[in-house]
Amino acid sequence: MAVVEELLRSEAEGAISFGNHKLEKKAKLEDFKHEGDLLKVKTYHEITKLEKNGMFLYESVPGTSVLNFKETGAGVEFVVEGSEDSQITVGLTDETEYEVFIDGKSMGTMKTNLSGKLSLSVELEAAGEVSVRIVQA
Fold first, then answer.
1. In the chain, count of helices (H) and strands (E)?
2. Which residues, including other chains, have CB under 8 Å from residue 12's CB and lie 6 or more apart?
3. pLDDT tens-digit series, residues 107-123
4. Does pTM top 0.85 for this prediction?
5. Are 64 and 21 in contact (CB under 8 A)?
6. What is the CA radius of gyration of the chain?
7. Fold adopted by 8-136
8. Residue 7's closest CA among 36, 48, 37, 55?
């Protein structure tokens, strides 16, 4: 898997890829049109953040590269790459239970807070990349 050199791009079947965890300086791309939405990404080695129509969608600390990020009616799925373990926060539906899968293994259920945010940790230092799937329970 490689970083997303153009910072944000559309993929097949409505997915997007974004972020570049190897950048030393902050980079951003605004007003990226994707399926009727406006996306904005800010990324570098310390943080990666994605907004959709001005609303929070994804954030990782430290920064990550994300491939094939796809929203579904039941949640989100993506592959994430980074140089070290990362804390990821995803914007979903307020106060809703979700089951979290990392590399196909269930990590159990988690409930989003009042603002719909769900936070999880992924171990990337040894793995390099992992698949994440978050589905409504």
1. 0, 13
2. none
3. 999 999 999 999 999 99
4. yes
5. yes
6. 14
7. Chondroitinase Ac; Chain A, domain 3 (2.60.220)
8. 48
Domain boundaries, the chain: 8-136
Edge-to-edge strand order for the sheet containing 55-61?
A: 27-34, 37-44, 47-52, 55-61, 86-91, 117-122
Question: Above 80 in pLDDT, residue 3?
Answer: no
Task: Provide the token pair at 3.
Answer: 């970083």
What element of type H or E holds 76?
strand 75-81
Distance separating the N- and C-terminal Cα atoms of the chain: 30
In angstroms, the Cα distances linking 33 to 36, 38, 122 are: 6, 5, 29
Q: What number of CA atoms fall less than 13 Å from residue 36's CA on the CB side?
A: 0
